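Students often ask why we bother encoding 3D structure as a string. The short answer is that it lets us treat folding as translation between two languages. Here is a chain of 384 residues written in the first language.
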Amino acid sequence: MFIIIVLLAIMGLIGTDIFVPSLPAIAEIYHQSPNHAQLTISVFLAGFALSQLFYGPISDAVGRKPPLIVGVIIFICGSLLCIFAPSFSLLCIGRIIQGFGVGAGLSLARVILRDCYKDTLLAVKTAQIAIFVSLTPALAPFFGGLLQQQFGFQASFVFMLGYGLLVLFLLMTRFQETLQFKNPDQAIHTILVQYGQLLRNTAFMKYAIIAGLAFTSIILYANIMPFIVQSELNLSPAKNGLIILIAALGISLGSFISSRAVRHVLPKQLIHVGLMIFAINGLLLLVANYIFGTTLVCLVPLIFLITMACGFIFPNAIALCFSEINCHVGIAGAIYGSMQTFISMLANFLLNAIPHQGQALLGAFYLGIGLMGLALKRDRVGIY
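And here it is in the second language, the structure alphabet:
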């Protein structure tokens, strides 16, 4: 059961990360600019964000298992379209379909954790899973770089297809329903009221937005790094994946430290440390770019610290959000996941409109993310 939760939780990250070393190749094959190639991530995030708003309420009504199965089937269909897409437009449509499918995995994985654990134990279990989940942004681009170098960009989507089929098999044969009390008679009006109540829960929303800012940091560097490494520094896709692997291992370290520290340090304090790391290292990226230009000697260690900050933020933001929720957990999971992905989508569309993308842009984004998160965290808010 634990393995299934992990596989569900990382499905969306695989969808965004495994093929990022192929972005320059996709731009060349389909005769698109780098900005247009990045749309394959933007439209994926759009489907990802929107679909989570539906899976949550449905899971409260019929249980967690049926919407998970439907979502994985949709993901499989989108992967097939991406493999055989003859045009860039059809590739983007396939990506949207994939996004609609993976929305079930990430949002309901959090909900299943909330079904099974409470309070501090929830934070501990979430941090333990985050150690495994955090390896995905590191390993997926590394593996994707090898696939790109050996077989071309379609190989990443073949891998996604196989991954979806494996998860579908496990859901059908091994997954046990975790929702004890179903509510099949919920009216649309009732669901909208429940959404409104949670959207007015300012403590819940504050940490959901902070988690969204942290998730945005991963999406941004996954988008920008291939063009820095392959186009600006003229390195291979495999080396691109290796560099991302080294940098992204910071999430694993941060999650491991958080899983140990959360027994002695408040989750709010760990989040504060993570946001401070964002702001400081964003500024350092800007200064280093001004003094030395784009160099891996500066870029990789600073990105490592940024991703380590994500390891501090993710598990503790989830724990703080869901510790205040005593009902409508599926809807809470939908809002949390959708908010996280929606913020990343907006940042990615903004990124698509910026012609020159490099180390300085990453630094500016990270500095802004840190300052916005710290400003949100300082607000004294009540619980509705």
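Translate back mentally: Residues 83 and 108 are 27 Å apart (CA to CA). Keep this in mind for the problem set.
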